[in-house]
Amino acid sequence: MTKIVPHNKFKDFQEKYGAIPASDKNDHIIKSRMLQGIYRNRKIDDAYCNYVFEDSGFVNFMRNRRLENDAMQELAAIKQRERLTDEKRLLENLLSSQPMAFNIFLPLKWNNFEIGNVVFQELFPFLNIKHLTEIKMEFVRGDGVGKNDRKITTDNSCFDVYVEYEDGHKQTGGIGIEVKYTEPFSNSDYWGKTGYKKDRYVDAIEKYSSQFSMEHAKEYLQSAYNQLFRNQLLAEEIKDKFRMSCIVAVIFSEEDSKCINTINNFRKLIKIENSCIPISISQIVQSAIKASEHLPEITSLYTDIYNRYCNYDLLNKEIISSKETEVTKIFLDDISIYDIPSSVDWKEIFDFSQKIDIDQYYSPNEMAEKMIYFKNYFSKYEQINSNSITELRALLLNYIRAENLNRNSKPNYEQRSFTNRIISNIYNIIYNKLWEDK
């Protein structure tokens, strides 16, 4: 049994939901673990707040019987392919990215990919996707039964999720997906290996020179980028062996700046445009919510998924709901935490944007310069680097005006991504103030 060593902060939370490990130092991991505690919604003695101990995986698969059944079928297929790494982690660790991948992607198969088609067409417009044909977990094209029945054998890697589709020209394409929540990328250093363990990758870099550069071989194989490189290599091998297109997508948490920076830096080391695409967890889940508006049960499921993995505002609401906590004017004089909208409700976002007088804080020229800077920064790093609520509120209003959006608009993918990031930043500022002494 694991010895529980609780964190020396967050005492009220831990008393209610269970322990946070004392070893947690990273804010993103702490906050994400706390979200899992809120989702679990009960304290279990001798267990950290992100664990359950149920063999069925019912809790980890969103307490949804249909999803649980699909997950068990997928698990059986993964075992047959000998791809599973840690079944216990899949079923019992709420914080693990593997059950999160099951939760997000398996329902996209339902109703003959009805929601999945819309989501992937929105996220990958340049692929001209007509319809999806397959979504598999822990898979790479060419996998058969067992380790000895595989077409791609440079190493034993596979994608967390593999999606196949038919495009408008009736051509087959693939998307290999790496899913990250709080786990770091692999820290293996293949550059320091000798013999075949290193040479196989060096040979592959030379073979697929249309994508990789030998001058970056050391960077590809060292700890920072080796996992992303090996994912990209799988895509290149699929293109080669099956004569089809294939790209890589990396699903990441918007709160994990280190992960985002690693992805963006790796993309600079490869040659072919749009071959490695970052997609935030929030973006794909919100796309599914939007696409399923006519299917209330699926909308409800994805809203629950959003709350479990993305809605860090729940942490702020948790602390202000405590009778022992007094929140007094820690924000600007004209707003409170109750004014901040949900990032999944466009009407709330629009109404919130109208509550600031930009002219009181910035001249039109200043605001125009800020808009150019923040949009360029966001396009490069998927982040908005501001720690000022006033600046973020002004940016939100100015962006909505510039994009000619109104309360009844249906923002596109890029517009939702930008405005959601602004709201998330505001929540982060509030979180830091609320929890700094807790």
Summarize this, please?
The protein is an alpha/beta fold. It has helices at 11-17, 27-40, 65-81, 87-92, 97-105, 110-123, 196-207, 217-221, 226-242, 257-267, 281-291, 296-309, 313-320, 346-353, 364-381, 389-402, 413-435, and strands at residues 129-139, 159-167, 172-179, 245-252, 276-280. Helix 6 (110-123) crosses helix 11 (281-291), helix 15 (364-381) crosses helix 16 (389-402) and helix 16 runs antiparallel to helix 17 (413-435).
Can you offer a commentary on this structure?
The protein is of the alpha/beta class. It has 17 helices and five strands. It has helices at 11-17, 27-40, 65-81, 87-92, 97-105, 110-123, 196-207, 217-221, 226-242, 257-267, 281-291, 296-309, 313-320, 346-353, 364-381, 389-402, 413-435; strands at 129-139, 159-167, 172-179, 245-252, 276-280. It has a five-stranded mixed sheet with strand order 1-2-3-4-5, with helices on both faces. The two termini are 28 Å apart. The model has no long low-confidence stretch (mean pLDDT 92).
